[in-house]
Each structure stands twice: as structure tokens, then as C-alpha cells.
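User: Can you help me understand a structure? I only have the sequence.
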Amino acid sequence: MSLFSTNSRHCSSSPGRFCCIGPNLSREAHPLDRAVPARWRHRYHTTRTVTAKLAEALGQQIVIDNRPGSGGTIGLSIAAKLPPDGYHVSTGQLANMGIAPALYPKLPYDSTRDFAPISRVASAILVLVSHPSFPARTVKDLIAMARAKPGAITYGSPGNGTSGHLAVEMIRVARKLDMVHVPYRGAAPALTDLLGGQITIYFSSIPPSVSLIKSGRLKALGTSGVKRAAALPDVPTVAESGIPGFSVENWYGVVGPVGMPKEAIARLNAELAKVLASPDLRERFTADGSEAISSTPEQFAAFIRDEVQKWGKVVREAKVKVD
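Assistant: Let's start by predicting it. Here is the structure, written out as C-alpha cells:
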């Protein structure tokens, strides 16, 4: 998770975590702390660029502070309790704002009530891959094979309740399939076992899988977005090939504590929109397998509400539990 603060004791963050501005909207040199969770390190250079551009626009220093843990919920729980003075913002993302409310009954914050949404920043889709020896070529083929041989297909994930896990659960529940979940402690071991043929399918982030797909070491069955991936234009979406309406995106954005001054929200939103519109930054996001997306605070608030409802339904129907 992520948050920026004038006090390094309270800092924590996640993906491209941004900054904070004072309630007087001055350009005084208040240092801002920014944390980046370990799971986002493969996008470190892109988020550094976002941070640098935003710091320049605001005339303030942004200091990175890493406070990872429990899918970003530890950092976000701290962020929810910070003073709404305009100097503290955090990163909200799919894991800690969209999925976590359904997984953790005692979550110490409410995603829809304890934060002031500022703007979405980016989203990244997944690609469903298999070992090349697996006969299926599409998601439709996968569904047919799972029905023909109940329990024969195994699907890996970076862990229970992750987006990669829930993406397969959406397919499994929608088509009433019997497949076996194999959770791993992170993405790397899951991908390694897929390459070795120990599991059948896996929803991977795009950057580490593109070269493996193009070299023939993995086979792409479908991507998880509402549109095809720029890096894999010939691979159909899951929605195109068997599950209408299917969409899974690892998104993140910037939020402040509830009660943050409207003037501070408006300025930060405006500066973020300018930063995210820069062609060089958009190219960097594309290279990282993601897409820069800005929004109004109101649009982001509505998006968070929709995500909480969507993933709550998925978790309930799939009967997902975390350890």
C-alpha cells in the first residue's frame, strides 16, 4: 500500500504512490514520504518517473518509504488514521481496497468510507497461460476440457485471494467447473512450476510472460481486460472467448484520509492528470504491461464502490478463504 507524509514515521505505500499538498495549497518545500510495496518493484522505474514529475509539478520533495504487508492492508490501515490535513495521501489498489474487504472480516478500515479518493493512476491486466503441451488453445477449449475431465486441470496462483486466483475462480464458478487450485507463495514459483509442467494454467502479469509466450515456452489462452493487451494483440480476451463480461485488472490510484480539504484534492487531481497525460510516461506504463488512467475524484469513488461489490460477490460465490 502506499502513503506520502511529511513525517517519515507514518509513511507507507504501494505502486506509483504519490504525494501530498498542504491545505493552503502553497508550494513550500514540505518533504513527502512515499512507500512502495515489494510486490510492485518490477514497476519501480515507472513509478519513480511518476513521482519525479509530480514532485516537480507540486514544488515539493517526495521521499519513498516502503511499508508492505498483507496485500497492502497494513499500510492502508495506517493511512486511514492519518490527519486529513492535505499532507498525507496513500495508494489504494485492487488488493487492499477492492478484494480485502471480502477476505478479512476484521479489516480495520472501510474502503468506501475512510478515504477521500483523488484519482485513478493505472491498471494492468493479466494473461492466462498454459504449458505448451496442454491441448487447449483458447478459454473455450479450456472450459470444454475441464468439463470432460473434472478435477484433472490444476491452476496456480501467487496465493489465496490474489487477483490471479480470483480470476480463475470467476471462470470456474461461471461455468461450474471442477478444477484444482494450487496456491504458491508468490508469482515466481508459480510461473516456474508452470514452465516445468507441474500445473496446467496460471494467470500471469504480462511483463514476465510475453517473451515466454513469443518463444513458445508458454501458450496464451486469453487476457483478462475488456480490450486486448497492447503487448499481445493476437490473444483474445477471456470475454471474447467464453465468459462475456469478464474483466480483471490490477488497478491502483491515490487516496487521502477522509476529510482531506477539497482544495488539496482538486489540486493533486489536476497535477496527476497532467503527469499521466505525458506521452513518455504513457509509453513507460505500456512497457510495464499497464495503462495510465486518470479520473475525477467522483469517478474514482464510484469505481471503488463497484469493485468492492464485485469482488465481494466473487469471494462469496467461490467460497474463498485466506490462511
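Now, to help you interpret it: The two ends are 20 Å apart (CA to CA). The chain has a mean pLDDT of 85. Let me know which part you'd like to focus on.
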